């Protein structure tokens, strides 16, 4: 799983969780925005895959 990050977002798009694999195991990053949400590409057929997100 080297180089793989799995991204989960809340319905309101104000929270995001990112799970990655590093040398010692799984790491989860969590971020919540106070006033606005993250900008996401549209969801097609209830999912998306291999999408590059710009932070």
Distance between the termini: 22 Å
* Mean model confidence by pLDDT: 76
Cα-atom radius of gyration: 12 Å
Which regions have little confidence, pLDDT < 50, spanning 5+ residues? Answer: none
Structural class: mainly beta
Biggest sheet: strand arrangement? 1-2-3
Topology as H/E string? EEE
Strand content: 35-45%
The general outline is flat
Major sheet size, sense and barrel closure: 3 strands, antiparallel
What is the tally of beta strands?
3
Helix content: under 10%
Determine the number of helices (DSSP H or I, runs of at least 4 residues): 0
Pfam family, one: TnpB_IS66
InterPro entries: Transposase_IS66_Orf2
Protein name: Putative transposase
Brief overview, please?
Pfam families: TnpB_IS66. The protein has no helices and three strands. It has 55 residues and is mainly beta.
Commentary on this structure:
It is a single chain. The protein contains no helices and 3 strands. By secondary structure, the protein is mostly beta strands. It has a domain at about 1-35. It has a 3-stranded antiparallel beta sheet, with no helix packed on it. The radius of gyration is 12 Å and the shape is flat. The mean pLDDT is about 75.
């Amino acid at each position: 799983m080297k180089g793989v990050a799995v991204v989960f977002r809340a319905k309101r798009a104000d929270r995001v969780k990112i799970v990655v694999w590093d040398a010692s195991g799984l790491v989860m990053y969590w971020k919540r925005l106070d006033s606005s949400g993250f900008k996401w590409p549209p969801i097609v057929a209830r999912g998306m895959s291999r999408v590059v997100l710009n932070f």
